[in-house]
Amino acid sequence: MSSYKILQAEQQGIYVLKFIGEIRLNLCSTLDNLVESITSNPDLRTVVIDLTETDIIDSTTLGLLAKIAMAAEKQSHFLPTLISTNPDVTRIITSMGFDKIFIIVREPASRIEELEEIPVLRASEQQVRDKVLDAHRILMGMNSRNREEFKNLVRALECEET
């Protein structure tokens, strides 16, 4: 039994995503595929991301969430919503500046129905490296703190490309 899962539902351009367990690098291809699907929908209105059952979330996942937020705000002119009741997760997302690109709700949603599990995609090492690099470039673009935090990682990944 896996210790992670991403569930989703969509209706009329409103997406609900629920992340369960440890959401890490191993899900970056799955999540990036989902991000591309959501952001390419011309009817995208907003996204609600439920992190109430998320134990751990890594910076690559945060970069992909930032990508969703920026696309949703650009298309719909509304900030997407993050629901986080885990103080550790809430501290991480606010320290990354997510309170500027998401509405952060610290109470659980009362009803989230008809969510379907997203199948996990496999990816090559190069594909994972490219997604990690892209996610961290997005985080660096959000603010100077993130730029300082991830510059060495991005530089190292860029050197591996050449």
Topology:
Elements (H helix, E strand, L loop, with lengths): L3 E8 L2 E10 L4 H12 L6 E12 L1 H18 L4 E3 L3 H9 L7 E3 L10 E2 L7 H18 L1 H18 L1
Parallel strand pairs: 2-3, 3-4, 4-5
Antiparallel strand pairs: 1-2, 1-6
Descriptive key words:
6-stranded mixed beta sheet, 162 residues, single chain
Structure description:
By secondary structure, the chain is of the alpha/beta class. Helix content is 46%, strand content 23%. It is built from 5 helices and 6 strands; from the N terminus they run E-E-H-E-H-E-H-E-E-H-H. A 6-stranded mixed sheet has the order 5-4-3-2-1-6. Helix 1 packs parallel to helix 2, helix 2 (59-76) packs across helix 4 (125-142) and helix 4 packs antiparallel against helix 5. The longest helix is centred in the middle third of the chain and has 18 residues, at 59-76. The chain is globular. The model has no long low-confidence stretch (mean pLDDT 89).
